[in-house]
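ok trying this again, last paste got cut off
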Amino acid sequence: MTRRPTALRRTLAAAMLTGLATAAAPLPVTAAEDPSLDQEIEAGQPIATGQAVLSDGHVDIGPRYVDGVWTLLVHDGTTDVPVWRTMPDTVFQVGDVSLTTVPDNPDYAFLPAAAGTDVHVVPQAQQPGVIWVGWNTQDPTVMDTIDRGATLTLRGVQGPGDVLMFLQSGTLGEPEVLWDSREPYPQDLWVEVNTHTHANWVFSEPGVYLVAVEVSADLVSGESESDTEVLRFAVGDGTSTDEALAAEYTGDAAEPAESTDAAASDADDDGGPAAAVLAAGAAAVVLGAVLVVVLVRGRAAKRRAAAMSVERP
């Protein structure tokens, strides 16, 4: 494996561990005050055709209406004129230049690798030679349409290792884990309208990763929108981008969970009424635990967003 210069390794580590790109906040994630994140997306920016491998520069994922259809796209700022790209035709290439050593520090015990291990990191702060993946809710039509914000939901991850995304504010801020492929799905992330944010993406092993993400929102009209797409990452210099483009997401994490009624019916087949009652109760407890872990943050975030946001005209 080709190693990158020590100076760049240190720069990437600093970017990951000090969170220089944005003033991270507890959920919900809001637009940061860092000038490097200031951007305004013009209406009607073109949607590029053809496949693209993006290995350096600034990109975001975000919702946009395409021929009237709410769609999760890639906003590509690596070109002279920014364009939008479709997920099936886009690969984020994360080369070995992004390798960063996990620090021997208990504050980072949550990372999906042991201290001293090298992992591939898309850093929170932009670094030369590394793709910089963030998200935004800044398309003009989207901003006029959604009510307060949108929810980005991790629906599943397919790949050779673990994927984790976290934010950190400065050297004293505690890491804020946003998504973790080792935890149950779905995992909700509330994003206020007109937000542009970047975080650290950590990949424990090289290879092709398919990350299923849904973007959903309540609209000012009272209706709602949602779309689920698959982000494609080719991690490591030895990983084929063609393979990443051709890979098919086969995970079932995006499917609705089995209802407690169905669980009770199955239990009745296996052990009669008493077993059905026990199975239904157990299913409710498990489902409740998952919802507490995944949804409470999003609901609390929406309440905080409602309290803080300026009343819409």
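PB: full thing came through this time. The mean pLDDT is 79.
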